[in-house]
Amino acid sequence: MEKSEIIKRDLYAQEPRRIKHIEGVYECAMMLRDRHAGSIPDEYIAEAAYMHDFTKEYSDEKQLELLSGYGIEPDGEGTATKLFHAKTAAAMAKAVYALPDEVCDAILYHTTGRANMTDLEKIIYLADYIEKNRTFIDCVDVRDTYLMLYEKGDPDALDRAIFYSLDLTLEDLLKKSFYIHPDTVSARNWLFLKFYRKDHIND
Ligand SMILES: [Fe+2]
Ligand SMILES: [Fe+2]
Asked: E strand or H helix at 4, and its extent?
């Protein structure tokens, strides 16, 4: 039995409310892999997709307990509760399922992003944001933008869609006056510089 099938079995046993979303991430990530990073193995996509929100429905108390059990500090001194699950799921991916480091990183950074993301990290990050069951206006907007760029044949469709999603995420966090993880800022500026240089090359 592949590891991803064991994770999937354990995930379904928890009867997660978000199973449609998780299946949507798997499907979308496979599609993005086929379009943008053909060399990533199916198994990596399946492991990352089925594991990324494995702990999402755990209570904050349980998340904090898990984090302290793994010796991990919570982000924003514990104020960024939405980020707990990425860290606990990545830690479990390593400790319980012995998943490869690159898959654990894709799980760890699926909410914040980070500078110099790998192709697998980008694919899981974007699939999480734009999979077909997402109805939040920003998600629909990024999904449409990605499709428009891809259909136009833009070779940077994946990165430009991620850049746009990071801007929307930062805007949303500022509006709500929430903690902003430094990795989100680094990811955004990394892509900002990539496209600034590219778009201003003939200035
Ligand atoms: Fe998540
Ligand atoms: Fe998710």
From this structure: helix 3-13
